[in-house]
Amino acid sequence: MRAELTLIPTATIHPGKITIYNEVHWQPFKPSRDRTGQSFEEANAMYSHLLESSRTALGKVSKIAKRKINKTLDYLLFLTNNKTVTNSFTGRTFQFKIAFITLTLPSKQLHSDNEIKSKCLNQFLIEIKKHYKVKNYIWRAELQKNDNIHFHILVDKFIPYQEIRDRWNRIINKLNYVDNYRKQQQLYFRDGFKVRKELLPTWSKEKQLEAYNRGARLHWNSPNSTDVHSIRKIWNIKQYISKYMTKPPAAVLDLEPREIAGKIQQGRIWGCNSELNNITGARVTIDTEIEHEIASLQAHAKTHTFQQPYFAILSFDIKILLYLKCVRLIEIFTNYIAEAFFKNILIEFKT
Q1: Chosen CATH of 63-177+224-268 out of 1.10.8.420, 3.30.420.40, 3.30.70.1910, 3.30.230.20
Q2: C-alpha dist (Å) from residue 310 to 238, 296, 313
Q3: Across the chain, how many H-helices and E-strands are there?
Q4: In the chain, what is the greatest distance between 2 CA atoms, to the nearest angstrom?
Q5: Which ranges in the chain are annotated with CATH 3.30.70.1910?
Q6: Which of 104, 208, 264, 270 is most buried when burial is the number of CB atoms within 10 A of its CB?
Q7: Which of 137, 113, 143, 100 is nearest to 248 (CA)?
């Protein structure tokens, strides 16, 4: 029996982007390699790019991983509302969308990257989901120039920085990183305060003294192992975050080949919550109504079209769909969002 090929015009809808292509269907079966006469070498050449991985030895992000990170960023920003937060000390309010958290180790790394991720990063993510109702997050592991691993995390909730510091210090001290820091500080300052001259270009004597007084007052039990920024003033948030999350690690910049061996990073270098990890976009077969809405969108002055022989990508501000009243496209996309990210909420509401 001869297999017949059918091409079905299809669109996949993401926040601010629609991909148009032909979906391939074979009836009654897909031909095997023998039937098509395709050699192993031809098949290998055609699909070898799919073997690329983000888990490179030096922690660099591959092109495929960059595309996926950018896609998850699109969804994180789309799903996160602007928030108004009041500073408990000053009483002033400010608006922000997402928080950018950095977690470091306050003393020399003594455990493998994978062990720190498993025992520390994983617990931190579990706790902020439970205690602060964080729903969506993206994390990136990176080597510092001191060869310690550290983590950048984007979250969709505001968390006070002192609470983050206390929580992270408690978690990493399961592996004695705070205890080791305290011992080092007590030894270094055993005769009282002294200036770290190598840090003067970026850390003044006054600031060093201020940090010393704070550390001594707390008996060196609360190292400055975290940093938190609420991203609210940067005009193009996605471009800024994408560049930060996909840049080469500081530990391997400007290295000679012989120096690289000690800079290998273990395991995954980025991740996100399961809902973001499993996004596929809203897929729909293009009928006459969908075709009309896509044509209207493509004709809009602020829509950018990237045309290739076998697919096209339309990039746009999602508000344009509302302006053009693309009812079907909006309905399909919102139904996908509800199913992919709010399914449990819908089930609870129905019951």
Answers
A1: 3.30.70.1910
A2: 28, 21, 11
A3: 14, 12
A4: 89
A5: 63-177+224-268
A6: 270
A7: 143
Please give the pLDDT value at position 240.
75
Give the three-state DSSP class for 344. Answer: helix
3-state secondary structure of 12: strand
Q: Which residues of the chain have pLDDT under 50?
A: 34-36, 38-57, 251-253, 255-261, 345-351
Task: Say which residues have a Cβ less than 8 Å from residue 1's Cβ, sequence separation at least 6.
Answer: 28
Report residue 20 CA to chain centroid gap. 26
Q: What ranges make up the beta strands (E) of the chain?
A: 4-14, 17-27, 83-86, 93-96, 98-103, 137-143, 149-155, 226-231, 270-272, 282-285, 304-307, 311-315
Instruction: Please give the structure tokens belonging to residue 346.
Output: 């819908």
Q: Indicate the pTM of the whole model.
A: 0.81
Cis, peptide link before residue 248, omega less than 30° from 0 = no
